[in-house]
Amino acid sequence: MSQQGPIIVVSTAGRPSFATALDDAKMFPVIDTAWVDASRAIAQLQPAAVLVATSATAEPGFKALAKQIAAHKPYLPLIAVDPLTSLPENAIPFAQSGGHFERLPARLLAALRIRILHATVLRRLDDDPALRTPLPDFDPVAGATALLIGRGAAYPALSVSLGERMGVVGALSIEAAAKHLNVRDIDGIVLGEGFSPRVVDAFLTVLAEDTRFRNLPIVVTSVGMTPAYDLPNLEIIAGDPARVAANALPLIRQHAFEAYLSRTLHSIDAGGLLDPRTGLLTSAAFNRDLATAIHQTLSRGGGLSVARFAFDPAHERARLDAARILSRLMRQMDFGAVQNDGSIVAVFAETDLRTAHMIARRLSSVMRHTTHGKRDARVEPVVTLATMLPSDSAKSLLARLHQDARRAAS
Questions:
Q1: What is the DSSP string of 177-221?
Q2: Which of 90, 129, 152, 311 is least surrounded by Cβ atoms within 10 Å, i.e. has the fewest?
Q3: pTM, whole model, 2 decimals?
């Protein structure tokens, strides 16, 4: 894979030992620079990635350097090796094990693929006049979902520490975690206490063998294990829950950004009809498709039902999470969109009210597993259903759905 630029290695005293791993992996050119020259080197050389050798004391210019790197387009990976202090939000941690850096090239390559994906999206947006709008400036972690697995004493604190920044799906067993991985878009896994080394090894081995999950950020809090897995974004972080969450956050943010870029490409391929943040239709496309679906149903016969999922306006992350669950689990003949009032409306083609109720109940059951912030802060969607009548238009069907929702709320 072409790097499209050099790799800059920043250190205080001489060439760090981890640079040898980059040489062995034939990732070049690798350019060494001191902290005092790092900012100028980045501006002049336009690197593909920046790696920094951290120390026990925070480098005075690290935050400013990270801010400079964060402003780069396309995405410029920043990897901090062996961090001992708190990191800027865009600095990806890499903890070596016993002086071994074999996983570092894989971690870097995974980040470089996201850089190439970002460059592709920017090029496609620039090439298509109808879609020539800049990517929105938002923190991808705001819509991210982490899978927290564990049953030890640290589980509640980990849930709160992660939930303050993102959605959290909890699993008390590996079996429950596997079900969540198969039905949801997960941006990172935190594997806590409560499992034997044999169970942890088997779980990580399965993840490494499945291409769907191999590049997921995986943070393991168990001590004494070695990262001998083909998992480029695996981190072993022991310590208090706040430290674990702080180190997991940059990796999860990076994956959430990658997922957003992938949805943006799908939106471009669909002519801009999909919302990149949710994967559902835009409002205009939804209204047009609903009118077409009603016309075809009235002409050919059959059934059509709609479901409205409403959430507390204070829980935007829950709404985003629900929209992505819907886009992932809906049948190919169904479609949906986020409405102006923040609710989500799904259209189930060729479906009577009883079947729509079963589908909506399954979807809402998956949505309920996400927590935000406190351990008991689950967000319950309020579901309203309506089925099409022979006299219905798109406007009247949606009006009746919203009327039913207001009656249910009162």
A1: HHHHHHHS--SEEEE-SS--HHHHHHHHHHHHH-TTTTTS-EEE-
A2: 129
A3: 0.87
